[in-house]
Design brief:
Elements: H1 2-9, H2 18-60, H3 75-111
Length: 126
């Protein structure tokens, strides 16, 4: 911020010329370029840390340990694995729909009034 104020203060000294404008344009371009690298580096570190955490969760769970380093596989293998898990997800959704339908049927029965056995029925001896 101080550099921008210094640059603005020197404007009248350089008569607000092209070189004066070129200095701030070059400076902001370099700073923007460096910020992009800084942000990318931070994202790469975050991504690596997240991958390690996911690997540990996979390793410590009942999941397939073969999934630990998927990021190292080629595109065709990744697509084949993705298709497998999409199929599993589809099967799970079908099972969920079956469960929801069963719950809906059970809810319909719960909403109906209970029928009582008539008095003097078989238990009353006739």
């Amino acid at each position: 911020m101080a550099l921008v104020l210094l640059w603005a203060a020197t404007g009248p000294l350089f008569h607000f010329g092209d070189t004066w404008q070129l200095v701030i344009n070059t400076g902001t371009t370099i700073i923007t370029f460096l910020m992009v690298f800084l942000i990318q580096n931070t994202q790469n570190r975050d991504s690596a840390a997240l991958q390690i955490k996911l690997d540990e969760l996979i390793r410590s769970s009942r999941a397939h340990n073969a999934l630990l380093d998927l990021e190292e596989l080629d595109e065709q293998t990744l697509e084949r694995i993705r298709a497998y898990y999409c199929r599993l997800a589809g099967e799970a959704r079908e099972q969920l729909e079956d469960v929801e339908a069963a719950l809906a049927r059970a809810g319909e029965r719960a909403d109906r009034p209970l029928r009582r056995a008539p008095r003097g029925g078989p238990a009353a001896g006739g």
